[in-house]
Amino acid sequence: MLDALVIAPHPDDAELGMGGTIALMLARGLRVGVLDLTDGEPTPRGSVELRSRETAAATAVLGIPWRENLGLPNRRLRATLAARGLLAGVIRQVRPRWLFAPHWVDAHPDHVAATRLVEAARFWAKLTKCDLPGEPCHPERIFHYACVHLRTVRRPAFIVDVSVTGAVKHRAVACYASQFPGDAPAPTVPERVAAADAWWGSLIGASHGEPFWCREPLGLTGFADLR
């Protein structure tokens, strides 16, 4: 059973958006899994086999104990009923307390479709008298992370201080060499992500930060961890 299930439209989205938070949660003993919805191919420099090896390498860098791929079509990702059932079945299998999905406003159609799919599958996962595998499960919250195609940046609900895990995040991102080649024009995607992490961190007095959004009210039992 997982504390958090990070759902990514493509391999590398989880690392880019919240790799530091994943590493931080794991370091603090939380059970974290990643579900990639597609294999991310085709791309100009990638292949299914290469992307699989890069994903395995990034997974090892972050120390993620559970990672699977739902096998949905890249570039044509849609929140269909069939896809909803597949994802709801995984949610019922791993039973996460929290779900993480891309921000609901994004330039990439796959990212928007992924978040619609996550929201619908969360609801379906709690159904009784259905043909879904496993027992009903309703994760407490959906949190949203930023992807590199996010162009409209809204005020986040909170920013996680990832100063101590920023370096491991960027090592994981570097595993996707087919997607972020060293000869790409500056600033490269990893450089843009590093700059964004530094900026978000500066807003909370940290060297690195990752923003998150939530459409539902959040509760606090104290103020000790606020910055």
Characteristics:
single chain; 227 residues; seven-stranded mixed sheet
Describe the protein's architecture and organization.
The chain has 227 residues and is α/β, with parallel strands linked by helices. The protein has one domain: Rossmann fold, CATH 3.40.50.10320. Helices cover 37% and strands 15% of the residues. It contains 6 helices and 7 strands; from the N terminus they run E-H-E-H-E-H-E-H-E-E-H-H-E. Helix 2 links the parallel strand 2 (32-36) and strand 3 (66-69). Helix 2 runs antiparallel to helix 5 and helix 3 (81-94) packs across helix 4 (109-124). The mean pLDDT is 96.
User: What is the number of domains?
Assistant: 1
Helix content: 25-40%
Counted by DSSP, the helix tally is 6
CATH architecture heading: 3-Layer(aba) Sandwich
**Mean pLDDT, rounded to whole units?**
96
- The string of secondary-structure elements, in order, is EHEHEHEHEEHHE
Strand residues, percent: 5-15%
- Can you tell me the CATH topology? Rossmann fold
CATH class: Alpha Beta
